Amino acid sequence: MRFLGIDLGTGSLKVAIVDEAGVECASASAAYALDTPQPGWAEIPVARWWDALCAACARLDAGERAAVRAIGFSGQMHGVVLADEAGRALRPAMLWPDTRAHALLDAWPEPQPNPVAPGMAGPLLRWTLQHEPRTAHAVRWALQPKDWLRVALGGAIAADPSDACATALAAPDSAWDHALIERLGLPSRWFAPLAASAEASGTLGADAARALGLTAGIPLATGAGDTPCAALGSGLAPEGDALLTTGTGGQILVTARAQPPVRRGLHRYRQALGGWYTMAAMQNVGVALEAARGWLSYDWKLAYDEAFGAAPSATLAFLPYLSGERSPWLDPAARGGWLGAGLGDTRGTLIRAAFEGVAFALRAGLDAQRACGLPITRLKLAGGGSVDARWRQLLADALGAELDAVDCPNAAARGAALLGGLACGHWRESDLAALAPRATRVASPREDSALEARYARFLDLYGRVRSWFAAAP
């Protein structure tokens, strides 16, 4: 018996098959690009997701696919897919890095229970009403990315609390806030009924089963957002565990059984199986490193080698805020780049500064968590953007925390597969602690006063650049 997890990410789709003991036995992925038809836009035709799913599944062994008895879903959070009655997309999906709705955030005056970003479903739907009224008129469902994919496989129209609470349209208990929705002029009928992440929400349709080489009629779990799925797949305890995930963006979350208090610059969302987590969400991690790598014409191997072969510069800094930033600054207008370059700086010095700048952006998010009384000295590590040992050491040094790598290369996809196993009754929630993957210490922080001085300079430079951009027309 096998269970399939599908993780619909920002830049790629990953699939993982786990066995009856929760051990990953097969995985595959397919990458895709986002479209930016106008400055600040980030969208993708949903057919690109479907093609990636078919391609990734085709790379899995046919026998493993035939043994799959349930499917679970993990998906990039925020963003929105506008769909008709049957769940067919009416336009390209709008995604979380999108900033087109920045000018419309006045509908969410401070204080809010969570930071509101322009790439969340609420602001994007408000933008659609104003700028694409014909599309808005045709909308029946405003779906989160993973919910659209589940419907495309034959599943039911549904949303789960872990995704709903991150739309800027939900009440503190994660139910839809219909009073807010109506005040914004959004039709309440657009929003799918909520179902638990581990609940069965339909079954795999015959056409989708043929396309993916799977068995028709198997249960489809509702699924959850990618961050709570990664926490589930990484085996985090329900209370007090901390996780760092690095990919296109980066998240630092701390689990809690009770609802955490409101903290400016931090998010408090629902876990996949109940409970809560506090999260610092930094959106310029892999995306900033990929941009720097491209500008400097590196392949990834040489980028790592030259970055960690170069001595750090006391004057050169890289602000990675290429698409604004969420935690802790709540600054969609933030921008970045290299500052303090000199004639003696090399390409290696520039890429080294880029890695340090991303590490410092993560540190700023972690410091916001610590400032709220969370004594975080140890982090579990997950995500494809933190594999290189030299990069892990820089992260440990910059964050001032022990890093324990989770023995689970596809944590979010594994978490989704576990939800599938729960949905079909193979596991109970009480079984999951015994299935947690092993975590191995991979880096311990070293005292480095020069690194701390560069971090202080990084914060000072951000403040100066922020003031400049705030004054720009």
Outline the structure in words.
It is a single chain. α10 runs antiparallel to α12 and α11 packs across α12. The mean pLDDT is 94. A hairpin with a 5-residue loop joins β2 and β3. The strands form 6 sheets. The protein has a 7-stranded mixed β-sheet. Strands 3-2-1-5-11 form a 5-stranded mixed β-sheet, with helices on both faces. With 473 residues, it is of the alpha+beta class. The protein has 2 domains: 226 residues, ATPase, nucleotide binding domain (Nucleotidyltransferase, domain 5, 2-Layer Sandwich); 209 residues, Nucleotidyltransferase, domain 5, CATH 3.30.420. The longest helix has 25 residues. The chain has 15 helices and 20 strands. It is an enzyme of class 2 (transferase). It comes from Paraburkholderia denitrificans. Its EC number is 2.7.1.17. Keywords: Kinase, Transferase.
Briefly summarize what is shown.
This protein is of the alpha+beta class. Helices cover 33% and strands 20% of the residues.
Any guess at the CATH architecture of the largest domain?
Answer: 2-Layer Sandwich
User: Could you give the count of β-strands?
Assistant: 20
Which segments are poorly predicted (pLDDT under 50) over 5 or more consecutive residues?
none
Strand order within the widest beta sheet: 14-15-13-12-18-19-20
Largest sheet: 7 strands, mixed
CATH class of the largest domain: Alpha Beta
- What does the overall shape look like? globular
Number of domains: 2
Strand content: 15-25%
- Report mean pLDDT, rounded to a whole number: 94
Number of discrete helical segments: 15
Q: Compute the gyration radius: what is it?
A: 21 Å
**CATH homologous superfamily heading of the largest domain:** ATPase, nucleotide binding domain
Q: Enter the CATH topology name of the largest domain.
A: Nucleotidyltransferase, domain 5
Helix/strand class: alpha+beta
